[in-house]
Amino acid sequence: MPDSAHTLVLANDLLEITRLADAIEAFCAPLAPGPKDLFALQLALEEVVTNVINHGFTDGAVHTFTVELRTRGRCVTAVVSDDAPAYDPLARPEVDTSLPLEARPVGGLGVHLVKKLVDTAHYERRDGRNVLALSRTFGPPAGPL
């Protein structure tokens, strides 16, 4: 399968999460991903996009941002780009999951989860935009059901 790309423009509205999941599924379909790979990518992007929507734009205005999906072989890269204030989610301290729940600080579990679900994650601030790239290499194509 040749490499491909698709850019999705989303509004800062949680109703966009369903559209995002559907777009990921359709984009990845030619790769015939196993359910674990597809779910991991969808969940990682759902977490990132939810954070952009809930925490990135605090002025109450309508904003748009992009999620670009690209394939190279069986590797899918998703690049989330927004013009919210600068924020590097990957710079958060690691979460100590061995602590009891009541001893853990609030926040950070979503970023921890994203890091566990993808193979690579990279953040940069470029031209006034947050640019977060996540990549996951899918296993062999899923066989027929």
**CATH-defined fold name:** Heat Shock Protein 90
**What share of residues is helical?**
25-40%
- For the secondary structure, the number of strands is 5
CATH homologous superfamily heading:
Histidine kinase-like ATPase, C-terminal domain
The largest sheet, given as strand count, sense and whether it forms a barrel, is: 5 strands, antiparallel
> How many helical elements?
3
First-residue to last-residue Cα separation:
21 Å
Helix-and-strand structural type: alpha+beta
Question: What integer value in Å does the Rg equal?
Answer: 16 Å
- The largest sheet has its strands arranged as 1-2-3-5-4
Poorly predicted runs are: none
| CATH architectural label | 2-Layer Sandwich
Write down the domain tally. 1
Q: Helices and strands, in N-to-C order? A: EHHEEHEE
Please tell me what the overall shape is.
globular
Q: How much is the average pLDDT?
A: 90
- CATH class equals Alpha Beta
The fraction of residues assigned to DSSP E strands is 25-35%
Task: Provide a compact summary of the structure.
This protein has 145 residues and is α+β, with helices and mostly antiparallel strands.
Notes on the structure:
It is a single chain. The protein has 145 residues and is α+β, with helices and mostly antiparallel strands. The protein has a single domain, classed as 2-Layer Sandwich (Heat Shock Protein 90), CATH 3.30.565.10. It has 3 helices and 5 strands, in the order E-H-H-E-E-H-E-E. It has helices spanning 16-28, 35-56, 109-117, and strands at 5-11, 64-72, 75-82, 120-126, 129-137. It has a 5-stranded antiparallel beta sheet with strand order 1-2-3-5-4, with helices on one face. A hairpin with a 2-residue loop joins strand 2 (64-72) and strand 3 (75-82). Helix 1 (16-28) packs antiparallel against helix 2 and helix 2 packs antiparallel against helix 3 (109-117). 22% of the residues are buried. The model has no long low-confidence stretch (mean pLDDT 90).
